[in-house]
Amino acid sequence: MTSKTVNAIKNFVSEFLSKSGIHGFFYVGGALYVTIMFTLESWHRYLYASTVVAIERDHYYWNTSVPALTICPMKRLSEDRLDEYVKRKGIKDDEKQAFVDFIESLANSTYSNFDKIKNSTIADAVLQRLKIEPKHYLRLIYELTEDLTIKSGDIDNKVRNRNNQEFIRVTQILTEYGICYSTNNFFTYNLSTAYLLDNKMPIDDDFYLNVKLNNVRYGNLFDGEVTYSFIGFKTPISIFMHSPYETMSVARSVGYTQEAFEFETLSIEIITSKETRETFISQRGCRFHWESNLTHYKVYSKNLCISECRLELAYKHCKCIPHFYSNTAGKPVCNYKQLKTCFPQYKTLFLEFQDTDHGDEKVTCYCLQNCLDSNVIVENFKVLEGTKTLLGSSGSIMIMKRYPLVRFQREVIFTLTDFFVSIGGTAGFFIGCSVLSVIEIIYFFSLRFFWFFYGYRN
Question: Does 159 fall in a domain?
Answer without folding.
Answer: no
